Amino acid sequence: GQNIDQPTEMTATEGAIVQINCTYQTSGFNGLFWYQQHAGEAPTFLSYNVLDGLEEKGRFSSFLSRSKGYSYLLLKELQMKDSASYLCAVRDPYSGTYKYIFGTGTRLKVLA
Amino acid sequence: GAVVSQHPSRVICKSGTSVKIECRSLDFQATTMFWYRQFPKQSLMLMATSNEGSKATYEQGVEKDKFLINHASLTLSTLTVTSAHPEDSSFYICSAITGGDKLTYEQYFGPGTRLTVT
Questions:
Q1: Which residue of A has its CA nearest to B31?
Q2: Which of A50, A56, B26, B37 could disulfide-link B90, Cβ–Cβ 3.0 to 4.6 Å?
């Protein structure tokens, strides 16, 4: 079966660093995506990993280990506006249509 | 670039009626569009994949006769919820991909439609 797990909720302090983990067990793998979603809004793209290692983009970094079925999203210098849900998604290589399998999502609350 | 719109943003309808939701790619041609539903505090659940000019592919457990999808052009897909019931109340989100970004084929999401069935 297809299974993607994330912590349900996390809380962190403004200015701190937070790491959101994602573990996956899927029949295939063709890339892992991280999206940010504020309540009642559409998800917005944050990062993409297809090879092992770290991808850095400003305050956000994403890491992938395909052998371990593991990824994390690292958010530095947290700001209040980072309070949102963070969705991990694995792309299904067998669908032929590049569909995603979404994780459960992690709700991050940033406190002042 | 890569903007996806949805209309309406919110809709309230009576039980037993049908509702149509439009998803448009504004500045690109979408080879494939996806329809999701999202319940409060939950993640996105894929309902169906829509390719222009062909029948949609529905995920297991999604009733294709209840959720009608039409992808008439490379910029428009519609989802019609037929004979809606209160349990169909949800946040419906579409997304689109284009063959132009061959590196990632990332999905671009619309702003979502909040459906409330009374």
A1: A97
A2: B37
